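Budget justification note: compute hours in this period were largely spent on complex prediction jobs such as the one shown. Inputs:
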Amino acid sequence: MYGRKVKLRFLFILLIILILILTTFLILKSLEENVVFFQSPSEIKALTEIKKKKIRVGGMVKKDSISVVSKEVKFIITDFKNEINVVYSGVIPNLFEEGKGVVAEGYLKDKNYFLATKILAKHDENYMPPEVKAAMEEK
Amino acid sequence: MPSLIGSYSLLFGLGCSFLIIFFSIKNFKNSNLFDSKILSFSLLQLLFVVISFFGLILSFVISDFSNETVFNHSHTTKPLFYKISGAWGNHEGSLLLWLLVLTLFISIFLLNTKNQLKDYRILTLLFQQVIIIGFFIFIIKTSNPFNYIYPEPKEGLGLNPILQDPALAIHPPILYLGYVGSSIIFSSALAAMTLNWVSKEWAKHIKKWILVSWIFLTLGILLGSIWAYYELGWGGFWFWDPVENVSLMPWIALTTLFHCVLVLEKKPILTSWVIILSITTFTLSMCGTFLVRSGILNSVHTFANDPERGVFILIFLFSLIFLALFIFFFFYKPDNVKINSFFWLSKETAILVNNWFMMYFLSVILIGTIYPIFLDVISSEKISVGPPFYHKLIIPFLIPFLLAMAIGPKLNWIKSDLRNKFYLFSFLIISLILSSLIIINLKIDFLVNTILISSGFYLFFITTRDFFVHKFQNLAQNISHFGFSLFILSVLFNNIFSSEIITNLKVGETFKSKDVIIFFEKVTKKKGQNYETIIGKFNIVDSENIKQTLIPELRIYNQPNIVTSEADIKINLLSDKFMTMNLVQNQNYFNIRYQHKPFMIWIWASVSIISFGGLISLFKKKHEV
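Corresponding output:
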């Protein structure tokens, strides 16, 4: 039979492997839960079911669409094919302007109505979120 | 003219590299004495890079718009201070700064290691030169800061206003000293490996270098964080943004490495692990540069999206990793007579356990940062990973981590027991009671928060006790660990007790809630040097009936035409009151954010304490632990 030392070492290695598998599983699991997907208004139009998961919607802020009602800001995101109404209460970044790119994070009410919890800040006037750029290029 | 000088001196600098390599190889083979020519050429190279760097600064100062970099990032109306800091506030200039620090470090290394083995010094220099040449070629080929435009434009495009800030002017140099400092650790590890000199002596010598980069990296991250807090107006200090993550990862690796080197200093164990960590740290620093500079991550640090640059750094990075692994597998022969025994209760075991936790934190952050990029490449699905992911995976493991951090330093090297350590147990009880008293009346998850805060308090009490009981023994370690406990506690309390109000107001309107009344009194317009500003005046009455006036600003810069909000922060020992305002386009509403952030100043202070511990350790004469 194997000595005590070998047995101990074997047990130790087994333990490490187990822990490794467990942590990998844990990481992947919570990654799956906490990932936020990006969709354009056209992709939302094509959805078959509305999930209760957080998503990001990106596109341009439609001209003359911003309006403020006390706490809330309403505007329309468009990718020039389809558009979606957004209601948002929260911090508005400085470069949030009509005719400029925007990414909103939040939940879909239905296909035409989006409840945003966050609008992503941009850092300079030329910067366009990569997602928006891609959506624009598809057009 | 300064541009021309700068440009040529870059080329001369590259030339020096080849001379250094030539003489080094000659010296390595032939003689037993270190050839002083090598040192002279290294210093000469440093001089050339310094000239080049000052050439660029001078071009910025005199607004020489025939230089493309100056044209893209400067403007005549910009204040002088930001003209100078603008020199490294862009892609090209910041890479020149990288190079400057690289050459600076190797020169200091050569001057500082006169007593070390000749072969070791030369090999370290050679490996460092490989990195230096890579950066020279990268700068000259893809991002030359001295490109010439003809005809000369009359006016420049200006520097992004959010970079026109004192904290951000010194953030890059400090951070780079940390990042690039790890290059010396990398080169030296490769050299030590080739010579089979990964030993106690090497550990003792490299420890200083690890500490230097660690201190700068800590301070660099701190500065960036403070800047994000007051300038970006997001009202926090850490957002798990990929750009922040790439600076945190080398920090974790460096911290782990430092602790391992402490073990290696005592006992010839963990040698391979130390080597792997040395390589990892530098790789992560390079990765950070790659991710930020290639335009893969979009952020304020992304100055230009040029795929060529990304590809170059990537190829360069992989060649360095390949070189490191090649040496690791073919040259490195760890001693077979290893004392491979770990007693379960000893300082080295405690360090090893904390190492595993660190590696776990590192992999969580790495996966969270890399996975979206990876997914984009293979399936073109666009995702983002937010703070909940990191919080969920990191916070539970902080508990054993903190406990091990409290008890670990109490153990002896090699073999230890826990007799006569009654206070260890009693402090645990006190911490538990204290934190449940704090948490019990709050509407938050009781169990997790209590345990978390208890372990924070536990570390806090134990390190505080050590200040009194042990006085100057292990002072450096104790200061840093104390700082860390203070940091964890401040962050936790900051998280739990923060409150925020976001609303839209017109001038003259009042916002009321049960905690606070905000009255928007007026706006005034003013003119700054290169911007116009709208200053809002808000009168705030909080729940304790304390009146305060906050005056957040909205700055409209002329060149480039960008609006930034300047938060008004009332700093207090116990809490910060933070306010920003933004204009809503085409409406007369202002978007207001008012935050009450407890213990903010303690977060900054605790990080400074952590790095101060490092400083003490660097300068202490007698060897302790």
